[in-house]
Amino acid sequence: MKTLAARELHPNEPVPAAAIGGTQDVFYARRNAARLPMMVRAEGIHFWDEAGERYIDASCGPMVSSLGHGNRRVIDAMAAQALRLDYVFSRVGRNQPNQAYAERLARLAGPGFERVSLSSGGSEAMERALQFARQFAVATGEASRRRVISLDPSYHGATIATLAISGNNAGAAFFDGFATIADTVPAPMTYRLPAGHTAESWERDCADALERKIQALGPRSVLAFAIEPVGGLSTGALVPSAAYMRAIREVCTRHGVLLIFDEVLCGAGRTGRFFAMEHWPDARPDILVVAKAIGAGYAPLGATLVPAAMADRLAALTGFDFSYSYNANPIACAVGLAVLDEFAREDLVAQGRARGGQLEAGLRSLAASCPMVGDVRGRGMLWAVELVRDKASRAMLPPDWGAVDRVRNHALAHGLLLYSRATSGGRYGQWFMVAPPLVASAAEIDDILARIARTLEDFTRWAATAA
Ligand SMILES: Cc1ncc(COP(=O)(O)O)c(C=O)c1O
Questions:
Q1: Rounded mean pLDDT of 322-344?
Q2: For the whole prediction, is pTM greater than 0.90?
């Protein structure tokens, strides 16, 4: 299938800038935005552009639209709430959807996550986790705890504070003198191991690195350790072992460091459990952050879950000082409730697990036959396909090939929207994400796999000319 976008625009052809206004992508690098289709309609796992071409939403945008598009029950709940009560600021009035949603989410998360602060997305929810941790430390006589440790690579959001704790920022010039960058320890990536290490010994070393870093920074200096329990784009869906997760939990407990799980991307059913933390019952975080798929693209929604013991103690001391105008927006909360209803009604976590198995098998078989796929990793319905120059040596692709942008454009020509972006300047490798809606049928998963196969054939052909 050839799309209009693919026929009319050469990959390197600049898009004429609008004289005034323009869509959001006028802010993005031209080479990446050149071929973005203008979407006018969506239903199920499909989009249609203004020329009537159809595309499959194969990574839910950036892993957001887990219910697919046009879910009538969610839309009706949103409309009904908008008609009843559109907005009330959380510091001047309460709203029932806020109360009901916080209760449902906390019940799903279980003991230790009784209080839920709602915001408008992943960056805000992560920022809120940092604000809460810091204010709790200050209020309880631990003001010296101000350092945050994260993984290199990692991604935690696009506000200045969350960018600064994201261990994948190549933007030293951006941050120099502008924000305090977090201390990092290596992410336990095992596809390429440092010399002399096995996967197990490297993971152990990565967990030890956390302890060494905390000790180096000094007693009562470290506030929190933030980690994506299952990686997103930054690591290419890295799934750490149970031993690693247990080890970092123990290190944090030993040093009074709060463990924050950033499940913005991997939460809400994406990895085969509702929360990714359920994969490691003996390594629970202190603070849990979710977003993206809890609003499923129907409303901007993020949630920061903390223990009642902490929230209530802070409320009795200074109280938590910070709020956003859109905290616990009633329409967003009504959407959140309707999304949880859909999870229950369609048993979406189990469905995602089943389709995830099909997707994994298909991707592994593609990897076996494609000379340019070095690794397929992930869990449930969250997969990364890592591209390599040489399978045997695991040699990375040259960064100047712009490989993942090319793959994205080849996919577009096959009616497939894939989320891919070179992260960390390609230092750790290059991969694209496959994370379809949890509602995708078995036939739709097969269709996605067939289109990925054609995309990889195109890319391999192109690479042969570039080598
Ligand atoms: C792990 C992780 N944390 C935080 C964020 C930021 O979320 P948002 O884009 O909703 O602000 C993202 C977004 O991709 C993410 O993947």
A1: 97
A2: yes
The DSSP result for 335-396, as a single string, is: HHHHHHHHHHHHTHHHHHHHHHHHHHHHHHHHHHH-TTEEEEEEETTEEEEEE-SBTTTTBP
Name the DSSP letter for residue 286.
S
Full set of structural domains in the chain with CATH? 4-70+348-466 (3.90.1150.10), 72-346 (3.40.640.10)
Looking from the CA of residue 291, the nearest atom of ligand 1 is 10
Residues having CB closer than 6 A to ligand 1 are 62, 121-123, 126, 155-158, 228, 232, 262, 264-265, 291-292
Q: For residue range 73-106, what is the model confidence (pLDDT) as tens digits?
A: 999 999 999 999 999 999 999 999 999 999 999 9
pLDDT per residue as tens digits for the range 368-410:
999 999 999 999 999 999 999 999 999 999 988 889 999 999 9
Work out which ligand 1 atom sits closest to the CA atom of 64.
10
Pocket mutation for ligand 1, best pick of 155, 166, 239 (most atoms within 8 Å of C-beta): 155
